[in-house]
Amino acid sequence: MQRRRRSRWPLFGSALGVAALLATSACTVDVPTEDDNNDGGGADGTSMLLAADNGSPTFDRNFNPYSPGKRTTTTLIYEPLFVTNTLDGTETPFLASEKEQPDPATVIFTIREDVTWSDGEAFTPDDVVFTFDLLKEFPALDTNGVWALIESIEVDGQDVVIHLTGDNVPAAAIIQKTIIVPEHLWADVEDPTTYTNEDPVGTGPYALGEFTPNEYTLERNEEYWQVENVAAQELILPASNTQLDVVNNGYDWAYAFMSDVENTWVAAAEGNTFWFPPGGTIALFPNLTMAPFDNPEFRLGLSAALDRDRIADVAEEGYVDAAGMSGLLLPNQEAFLNPDLPDGGAVAQDVDAALTHFEAAGYTMSGDQLVDSAGTPLALTLTTPNGWTDWLRGATEVQTQLAAVGIEVTLNQPQPAAYQQELQNGNFQLSMGSFGGTGSIYEDFSRLLSSEFLQPVGTTTTANFQRYSDPDTDALLAELRVTLDEARQLEIAQELQTVMFEQAPVISMFYGGLWGLFSEANFTGWPSEEDPYASPATWDANPLLVLTNIEAAG
Amino acid sequence: MTEKEATAQGEAPEPTQPPPSGRKNAYNTTVDGGGGLVRVGAPPSPLTVLGRAAGTIWSVPKARVGLILLAVFVLAAVFAPLLAPYAPTDNSFARAEGGSPAHPLGTTTAGEDVLSQLIYGSRVSVLVGMVAGFGATLIAVLLGMSWGYTRGFAADVINFFVNLFLVIPGLPLMIVLAAYLQGGGLAMIIFVVVITGWAWGARVLRSQTQSLRSRDFITAAQFSGESSFRIVFREILPNMTSLITGSFFGAATAAILAESGLSFLGLGDTAMVSWGSMLFWAQNSNAILTGQWVLLFAPGLCIALLATSLTLINFGVDGLSNPRLREGKGR
Amino acid sequence: MRYVLRKIGLLLLTLWAAVTLNFFLPRMMPGSPTDAAIAKLAQNGPVSPATRAAIEAQLGVPTGNIWDQYVTYLGNVLTLDFGVSYTFFPQSVSDLVLTALPWTLVMVGVVTIVAFVLGTLLGVLAAWKRGTFLDSLPTLTGTFTSAFPYFWTALLLLFFLGYVLQWFPTSGAYSARATPNLSAAFIADAAYHAVLPAVTILITSLGGWILGMRNTMINTLGDDYVTFAEANGLKPRAVALKYAARNAILPNLTGFGLALGGVVGGSLLVERVFNYPGVGYLLYNAVTNQDFPLMQALFLMITVSVLVANFIVDVLYGYLDPRTRR
């Protein structure tokens, strides 16, 4: 979601970068086409040029949907049971036509009929069960961790019945993301963890067309069960999608942060538009195991000391909004917003209030420095990953603003891998971080606040990096996990926002944008502020939503 | 070694460091002739030597241009706060502006004044060049000369270390070290550049020491019972002033280029304003697309000019020890 | 013979030390390969806690005692088995290296040779015509261009020749729909794509050769035997080429040998700017993703080729110039 591609090079590194593998594709011999970078652009209106998959610098032919190094578009060849709009949590049925939760420990997916694999074989509930069994047998494939949730699974006619390990309502949202593979082909795969699945056979709207290390195409699957909704006949995916390419080569859909987007992308061609909705919240993560961050008053002081609009403006060149303290992505999740929060959770800069909070935490202004009771000036270290430039700009602005209330902030910029390690081990004082954006309120808050993830400093944890622990919050999360009552779910969601607002376990600052660039020249009906049916993201299942909704122009 | 890593190892294309072997002077029978002439027995005071050397360098037109150019950059670095119209990190201006009277070179996409950044950026390059150049030369002198003078096991040990540092790919090593020493700021960059940049100079200095070792005046000193340390650093060293000076400028050039490369890759301190980091940010915010080619052009030109000034000075330094290389004289 | 044996002993020792360093250096880097993978995924959105475990299981990141890992590694080095890359999982390191190597060898190798030959010729000319236009032009231009940062030259060429004038492609080693093969059409296409990166390297490395050759040549021209030859009435051109240049080129050949050894390492920054699928780019990927197996193999390959080049030059020198043989 949020950050950029703008890390160090524009548009680099898709998920796990993937290499040049000339060798594997050397079997097909053909001569370079005349037009090298300028093909596509969909002159005929049915071909779409996409900046969705970046070679590093060339493509490796890997269409294993569970491999971290898979081609991004593998998720257009295969489908999950349901696709969630990560912006607001809306769910769209794909391979399952319906979902039912008769009790909090059971999920029943009704599997769609009349679906065929692209090789002509029929798709059945057995394929679904096979897939889940495969993930159980090879935990390395289970990237969503579904077998931590599932007790057992069985077929009942066209239904797949999943028994959970306990009452767990939000589990269905995770389970239904599982990408289903064909039993008749995958049953023979010896080691699916290293399998590269060079000739993928899926149920999705597209099948692999021509593959070369610098570019490949996906052709529409004419047998697709909702082929009438798929407007683009062909998708063209070049390996090189530098911002120069994106602006010059007439892309239909690209994902890229672009400085000065009006004068670059929008000005480049008629019909070019952009939409940058919030995809997550960028926040200051205080290490709650150490003073002064263990004191909520101090955290609220930090919160009041920040001018979030300015930080958002500096960090993302004015393309995103400041985030309030509710923990929600607004306006996406407006429906869940607690109406009791003042200003919808927004916190304006108020230096006096900040100093009052700091005083309550034992820090007072002395001259132009904030000092503790012993008179020692307060100095903090703020960690931000090297190369994530928008975060760095935000962090620099935080540094400036906190200096104004007498706090000396030093920036620590480890490489991204080291940053992950420091975050996971709690080896930081104050760190830039992000949360939210899964589309599930439970997931968002649980990963941020649940003591289930609590680990002492020095031990790796995969969530709750600030190491928050509060029995009342845990109780709320536990109830949210088991209740099927939607009204109660909403109530709990609102109470969790109050926790965020009053306890400030993390200090939200601004939204990380999803940098969607669209061209309406050949296709219309892209997701937009008016019609946010999907996010602009070009990875995971999101493109399924987009490509089954757009229409050919004119 | 066609890449930056070569540069980092001191193979910076510059004249004194002879084509990598560093054995140019094996063919040069009159190394100790010329301006900085020093003979055993009556060493002139260091100041006299320096003065004469400076005079010789200044007399070479190319070197003169280099000295003036260098002086401009050093002055810009020293007086940056006076010269720069704004603070380099002041981001309160309109973004991505073209040139205007208020901002002659425009502003960055973050709303900083480009000219101010350029002026402040000279500080990092000049400092890194000086300090890292000095550090690398110091190690090169100590190791290279001991290596050249001693024989047998000790020489092999040094040979081993120098070779090791010569063969490990420089830029990747710098990246690894930079990642390891993250957050160390300028000191880290200097350290990394020194560690990866001294070996070449050591090799060059060894060759010269070796060739001087068998000279009569050294043999004389040995017979008169002088300690090895004294022979190396009191008898041989003064004869190598120009080579060492050349090494220094070479190492400084390499250091400047290495720093800019590291910063450009975003592995330095991206929050620090340097020419390399300006290029990093320019590339990052796609200065090409926003038409801000100045952002790409100016910092690189400054790096090139600063490095050129050092190379030009070396033309004069060359003439110090080797009258044949002096300008203006036919062969 | 003893001289050569001693050199070989030293070579092996250095090799071992380099191999060992290659093992420990990457492991000094903070963060694990899994962290690097997660950090990359995190750029696209929230990473679920389950993902970490899955990635760790999939990559098979070694967890055992570092000493055991080292012994295994030494064994792997001897058998040239470098395992599977983390970044490009599940591809084998050998495949990746073999795929990237030809691009670098050809592009960087050819440029290095061209730069050396051209630079040496210009250097000879400059020294011979000392003080004239033919001297000052290449010398001064060379001084200036050799001070260009590689990446800056690359960016400028990309901007002017690639973007503004659109004469050359700005990225990759061949066209979008091409598949590498040995047809004339493909080779022409690849050559076209190699122009900008090659010119970048040429511009920035040419100056060094010119200046180096000019200096040694000037020295040699002043030597007694050259003066003697001139006094004997040989034509200046013959003196310059037959006597002076032939001797002056010796030390430059050393540099050339080492530069050729370094070709294997590719040119990281240039390949990066032009998205060129060579070894330098691969190395950059390996280092920034903490891809230990890939990094080790590449470091080893570069180290060995530089060492071997160095060794050959050393031995050769011992024979060509007995003065250095002590």
Automatic annotation (TrEMBL), chain A:
It comes from the Bacteria. Residues 93-438 form the Solute-binding protein family domain. PROSITE patterns: PROKAR_LIPOPROTEIN. InterPro entries: Peptide/Ni-bd (IPR030678), SBP_5 (IPR039424), SBP_5_dom (IPR000914). Residues 1-28 form the signal peptide. Gene3D superfamilies: Dipeptide-binding Protein, Domain 1, Dipeptide-binding Protein, Domain 3, Periplasmic binding protein-like II. Keywords: Signal. PANTHER family: PERIPLASMIC BINDING COMPONENT OF ABC TRANSPORTER. This is ABC transporter substrate-binding protein. The lineage of its organism: Bacteria, Bacillati, Actinomycetota, Actinomycetes, Micrococcales.
Automatic annotation (TrEMBL), chain B:
This is ABC transporter permease. Its main location: membrane. The lineage of its organism: Bacteria, Bacillati, Actinomycetota, Actinomycetes, Micrococcales. Coiled coil: none annotated. Residues 1-34 are annotated as: Disordered. It comes from the Bacteria. Residues 126-314 form the ABC transmembrane type-1 domain. InterPro entries: BP-dependent_transpt_permease, MetI-like, MetI-like_sf, OppC_N. The chain crosses the membrane at residues 65-84, 124-145, 157-180, 186-205, 236-258, 294-317. It is found in: Cell membrane. Keywords: Cell membrane, Membrane, Transmembrane, Transmembrane helix, Transport.
Automatic annotation (TrEMBL), chain C:
PROSITE patterns: ABC_TM1. Keywords: Membrane, Transmembrane, Transmembrane helix, Transport. It is a multi-pass membrane protein. CDD domains: TM_PBP2 (cd06261). Residues 101-313 form the ABC transmembrane type-1 domain. The keyword Transport applies. Gene3D superfamilies: MetI-like. InterPro entries: MetI-like (IPR000515), MetI-like_sf (IPR035906). Pfam families: BPD_transp_1. The keyword Transmembrane helix applies. It is found in: Cell membrane; Membrane. The chain crosses the membrane at residues 103-128, 149-170, 190-211, 253-274, 294-320. Belongs to the binding-protein-dependent transport system permease family. This is ABC transporter permease.
